[in-house]
Structure formats: structure tokens, C-alpha cells
Amino acid sequence: MLKALRGFASPMDTDVTLCRVEEMPDGGMKHFEIMGYDVMVVRLGDQFYCVDEACTYKWAMLTDGHVDRERLAIVCKDCNGAWDLQTGQPKDPPAKFPLNAYRIEAEGDDLIVTFTY
Fold it and tell me: Are 88 and 100 spatial neighbours (Cβ–Cβ below 8 Å)?
């Protein structure tokens, strides 16, 4: 029988209000810092995506890159690696490590992300 290890917490979810929906234009990207973690939000039409901000290859800020709308991907300006906005999984090399992807939704006028730490 396995016993729970003392001192090891399971991940915690926290809902965080990031901004008002109207502050995110269609096609826009915006950086947010949540509890010391850098994340980015992308709006494509009525859909919002939230992933880690840093490229896992060059550590560049992904909001300096561009969104590939057709592939639902964020592309790094420094290495041209691409990650899926829905899952955070790498799409194009040299990206090989995934980004964390967070649940995000519009609730009324607010944009709320469920941040897991």
C-alpha cells in the first residue's frame, strides 16, 4: 500500500482575473505575470489561449514572436520554433519541450485563467 509523502503538495489551481475581455484585440498577444510566472494570452476571434511566455529553446519572450492563425501556433522570433496554442506541444523544431497550457475563459467582461502551480 502506498502512503502519501509528507511535505509534498499536489498542484493547486487558482483562478486569476487577468484583464477585461475588451483589452485583448483579435489577433493580439499580451504578457502577464502570475505569482512570479510569465504567461501569455492570445486572442483569435472569440477564442482565448494561455501558455507559458518563454521559448523553451532560446528563452526568448514569445510575445515578441508572431501567431500563426492557420495552425493555432505561437512562433518564436529568435529560433522560429512553434508551439500549439491549445496544448503547448511543440509543432516545429528546434522546439522540443512543451509549454504549459492553461484553461482560460471569458466570464462576463473578465478574462480568467486557471493557473496551476
Answer: yes
Per the domain annotation, does 29 fall within a domain? yes
Q: Work out how many domains the chain is built from and give that number.
A: 1
pLDDT at 10 over 60: no
Instruction: Compute the distance between CA of residue 109 and CA of residue 112 in angstroms, rounded to an integer.
Output: 10
Q: Does 4 reside within a domain?
A: no
CA distance 30 to 24: 8
Structural domain span for residue 88: 13-116
CA distances, 99 to each of 57, 72, 85, 106, 110 (Å)? 11, 14, 9, 22, 24
Q: What is the pLDDT of residues 61-84, one digit of tens each?
A: 999 999 999 999 999 999 999 999
Q: Rounded distance, CA 60 to CA 48, Å? A: 22
Domain CATH code at residue 67 = 2.102.10.10
